[in-house]
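Pipeline run #58 for the internal structure catalog. This entry was flagged by the ingest filter as a single-chain record with no existing model, so it goes straight to prediction. Upstream metadata was stripped on purpose; only the residue string is passed forward. Reviewer on rotation: M.T. Logging verbosity set to normal.
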Amino acid sequence: LDDGAFTPYGYAYDIGRGTMNAIRKYKRDHKPHEAGSTTENNNGNGSLMRIMPAVLYCIDRGLFADTSIDIIHRVGGLTHGHIRAQIACGLYYFMAAAIVSNNGPLPERLQKGLGTGFTFYEAHLADREELAHYDRLRDLEHFAGLGVDSIRSTGYVVDALEVCMVERMSWLISAAVTAVAMVSRSRISPRRTTSGASRSAERSASE
């Protein structure tokens, strides 16, 4: 961030406000798990964009849902500590887990993952109103019928998660999760991977 290391052009750019604020707070206080703001205006998509490694870590190790969500909320909370942003990361986890552990068409697996995620949060959330921000994703068939024009492509975390559900985009989630699942299994049995016997595997807030 300061000297441009590991950047393509020698300098850092396009850093969201929530992420930058968290970095500055961490540099000042050196308390990583208190760096991410928990205010409602810190619901950009920064944590959602970076959560996939944590999601795959939990899936690869077969962790229980409550343990996985605790890890994912902590990782997402490094920059975005509001529960709404954390729910987005959690639902992302449930969808990815469903892709890996179920067979069938991708929309069906995504729906199954979302169903599991909504059930989990309904049982564990103190503030159910936060979960309601994602109600359009409860029924993906109905959501698909809304049309692309109804999808808001902004930096708001709810919009960002909805964009992932647009049919021509959702295959990206499946491809990433499937690839990592295959690599994970190859550490146990390379033949299972090479032979193909693998499991079916951005409103107004700133980023």
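catalog note: The two ends are 17 Å apart (CA to CA).
catalog note: The CA atoms of residues 111 and 171 lie 14 Å apart.
status: ready for reviewer M.T.
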